[in-house]
Amino acid sequence: MKTRTRGAENAVDPIGNIGAQQQTRALLRQTQARLARAQRLGRLGYWEWDIQNQTLHWSDEVYRIFGVGRDFALTYENIEGMLHPEDRETNTRNVQALLATADEVEFEFRIIRPQGEIRYIVQTAQVERDEAGQPLSAFGVMQDVTERRRTEQALRRSQSELEAVYEHAPVMMCLLGPQREVLYANRAFTAFTGVSETELVQGRACGVFGCINAGEHPDGCGFGASCGDCRLRLAIEDTLATGQGHKEIEYRATLERAGARRDVVLLGATARIESGESHRVLLCLEDITERKQAEDRMRLYMAVFECSEEAIAISDPQGRLLYINSAHEKLFGRSLAEAQQMNYRDFYPPESVQILDDRVALALARGEGWEGDLMARDATGRLFPLWERAGSVFDDQGHMLYAFGFMHDITERKRAEEALRESLEKYRVLFESFPLGITITDAQGHIVEVNRASEPLLGLPTAEHIKRRIDGGEWRTIHADGTPMPADEYASVRALRENRLIENAESGIVRTNGDVTWLSVTAAPIPLENYGVAVTYSDITLRKLAEDALRESEVRYHDLVESLRRSMERATHTQNVLLALSRAAQAVQRARSPEAIYQTIGQEIDKLGYYALVF
Fold first, then answer.
1. How far is Cα 122 from Cα 99, in angstroms, rounded to an integer?
2. Do 39 and 45 touch, CB atoms closer than 8 A?
3. Residue 588 CB: number of other CB atoms within 10 A?
4. What does DSSP say about strands 118-129 and 2-3: parallel, antiparallel, or unpaired?
5. Does the CA dihedral 174-178-180-183 come out positive or negative?
6. Do 451 and 432 touch, CB atoms closer than 8 A?
7. What φ, ψ does residue 327 adopt, rounded to 5°?
8. What distance in Å separates the CA atoms of residue 184 and residue 205, rounded to the nearest whole number?
């Protein structure tokens, strides 16, 4: 503590220990000039406070630090008003401590210049007291440390940001010592290994991953049978030895943890960090196992695409082609390089482009697929029909990334469809105009189709007909002798059940008015999926009536002939008897005696035999 007596001759020079009072004025001016220059360069100013007389003196540099002119009134209120509101209370406590008991205080505070700029000030102050310990005056030095504080703040901010990046980066990071031992590891690293940083520290990379090669030797990582080929270990050791950093180090390994193994692919980079006499290596790793698997799958897909007979095209959302396969090149006659300079719309005529814009593009934008036929145009200008199935791919935010299409030429299919259409039309005309009734069933026996000739034959409207089954109870069917025919004897039911042709089966259909229509029915299985049998039937009622009439005529004719035969036989018997009697009479006339007469009559009777008896 410095003291002085009031009015003493040996009072301290107001400008400090900068020279004796006896120095010449020239030396004083020179010293003051040097002091002022030093203050400006160091942004260092001083002040003096005569506590007894309540006067305050600032050096020129203090005025510059506060950003005010010499006309600034050095009052407590003015000075406190320039202090940062958050620092005023602390400043007051420091001044009170200085005046009360402290001999020297040092503290930092902020001021706000009239222009609004904040400056950081470090101040050191000393107090001089009398013999009673009462403060007489104070002397202080102020230094503007704004730039230093801003630099420190920027450095702390950078360190904080770097720490945040280090800790929260999705990339694994660790700091390795001279023996490849782990010194620090970030969260991504511990999450990947499943081991805490405390457990990882001092473990060797790559052994800390659980690499199975590191477990082959008691000394661990680097000594296993396969460690000599480990690219990651070699890169780390080279960086430690030469300072050369390495990038894109692909590290494939089999890791084992808690008895479970997994194959991984890591992508690494190394950088040496100087630390005194030792060297350290920052190791950054990214798990690219899924990416590699995706790349492998992509290679597989590309191989499949190239082998596909379907033409495949991939475009961006605007329609610019990104990829076409070999089948597409062959179909349209344009190479991949040519296609990548084109829009997919260039491969279609205007009418198809209209469909693509009005229907397909809207469906793909909604994430819906589209499938249909379009007309396309190849490199020669030839138009041909095309079948296409289109889809789209979106990112997690719902933005379309790609559109794709699978397609093939359907010229032959169209020709076949036209030929089939013609055949179906011929079949339809034949089916409808055929004079026989036709019924088609499904595999369960439901009637699905009938022709026009069936209505008059069965007396049943088509709408009612196709509601029935061939074995339905609505049918009234009889045998030729008039007895009821059970459904399992119907020709159609037998053909469906036995899966064979049933030909020319006769049956009678009893109509609602009691009339019977006699039919000749042929039924055959249809060798198509979901189909049952085809049944044809013709009206044989007139033939049946004619056959019945013929049978009746034959019976009457037979009876007549038999009657005539019997009549003729009786006439013949009578004639023979009369002839015999005539011969007997003539013999009697010639006889000369009764014996001769009896003998002659007996002989004639013997000749008549059966006829005589019948007569």
1. 19
2. yes
3. 15
4. parallel
5. negative
6. yes
7. -65, -35
8. 12
Residue 57 one-letter amino acid:
H
Report d(CA 225, CA 245) in Å as an integer.
26
Closest CA to 382 of 348, 408, 354: 348
Interacting residues of 68 by C-beta distance below 8 A, sequence separation 6+: 82, 113, 114
- Mean pLDDT, the chain cut into blocks of 10 residues (615 residues total): 43 47 56 62 83 91 93 91 93 88 88 94 92 90 91 85 81 88 88 85 76 73 76 90 92 84 91 83 91 89 90 95 95 96 96 95 94 95 96 93 95 91 87 89 94 89 91 91 92 94 92 88 93 93 82 76 72 64 65 64 61 43
Please enumerate in sequence order all residues whose Cβ is within 8 A of that of 324, keeping only pairs 6 or more positions apart, or say none: 311, 312, 313, 314, 332, 334, 336, 339
Cα 542 to chain centroid distance, Å, stands at: 70
157-199 confidence digits (pLDDT tens):
888 887 787 788 889 898 888 888 888 888 888 888 888 888 8
Query: Do 402 and 316 touch, CB atoms closer than 8 A?
Result: yes
Backbone angles phi, psi at 533, to 5 degrees: -135, 160
Six token digits for residue 19: 């020279």
Determine if the pTM surpasses 0.70: no
What count of other Cβ atoms lies within 10 Å of the Cβ of residue 202?
12
Which two three-digit tokens encode residue 169? 């980066």
As a whole number of angstroms, the distance between CA 203 and CA 176 comes to: 10
**φ, ψ for residue 29 (rounded to 5)?**
-65, -40
As a whole number of angstroms, the distance between CA 281 and CA 242 comes to 11
Contact (CB, 8 A) for 142 and 43: no
Query: 278: burial class by Cβ within 10 Å (0-12, 13-18, 19+)?
Result: exposed
Structure tokens at 366: 């909604």
Round to whole Å and give the CA distance between 219 and 227: 12
